[in-house]
Every structure is written in C-alpha cells, then in structure tokens.
C-alpha cells in the first residue's frame, strides 16, 4: 500500500467513524423519552418483543450485559409496566414478555430510530443508496464472528423490514451455526 493509499484509507476510516457516531447519537436520542432512559432498555424491549418468553440469559447475551445488570434492567422495565416476568420452563429461569404498553413502546422506538436514519439516507441519490445497501450488507456479514453475534448486532433492528431470511447478519450466523462456530 502506498502512502497516498494509506492516507486515503485513514481518511475514509475517519469519515466513517464520524458518520457512525452521528447516526448513532441521533438514533439513541430518538429512542429516549426522558434523559434517564438508556439504549439498553430500548434494545431490551425490542429483543423481548422478538423473542417472546426469552430468559434473562438470552436477553443478557443479546444486550452484552452481565446477568446482574440484566436483572436490574428487567426490574426497571417491570416497574415501568413494560415487561412481565413469569416462571420459565426451568424453575430457576424466567420468561420475559412485553405488556401492551411495552409492545407499543418497542414499536415506537424502532419506528423513530428508522425515521432518524432515513432522514440521513434521504441526503443520498437513489444510486448511492443502492451502493450503500450492498456495502453495508457486506460489512455486516463480515462482522459476524459467531452465531450468537446476530442477536447483539440486530438488537434494535426492525424485523418487519429486514426479515431474518434476508438479513445478512442472520444469514451469516446460520452459516456459522451450521459449521458449529457458535
């Protein structure tokens, strides 16, 4: 790699980093109804909605949180009337479910996140959007190192617009799962 190529690559990395931070900040801010609301609580509602009846362990893995932090988060969501926990298949586990308010809040979070990101995408012409979709799918596919990565990467995704059988992340996770790279 020449010095000019290295400089161009570093500039692209810097631009991508700045874009990623700004898009993330806009999406995170849109998910909050009040300053104390966290991205983890928003993601938790989405994950529980997708995996109705999931355990604290499944939720912890998807969010990248410790078991203790996940239990505290679930307690807060229950106190807010967004989640219920019932006895799981094993007496030591719980099955997490969204309340009606929790389902509505999860839908609102995902819709607002998509709206914020679409506002950014609207700055691009259609041809560039098609290139960006292809590039984004390639990058996401390459970021999946293990089957379990899919739940974490897609924790705030709208599963109605990126269904698992067309999702590059879930597709790669299924390939890894089939080859026992869990």
Automatic annotation (TrEMBL):
Molecular function, one GO term: DNA-binding transcription factor activity
Coiled-coil boundaries: none
Domain of life: Bacteria
Protein name as annotated: MarR family transcriptional regulator
Residue ranges annotated for the HTH marR-type domain, each copy included: 30-129
Any one GO biological process: response to stress
InterPro entries: HTH_MarR-typ, MarR/SlyA-like, WH-like_DNA-bd_sf, WH_DNA-bd_sf
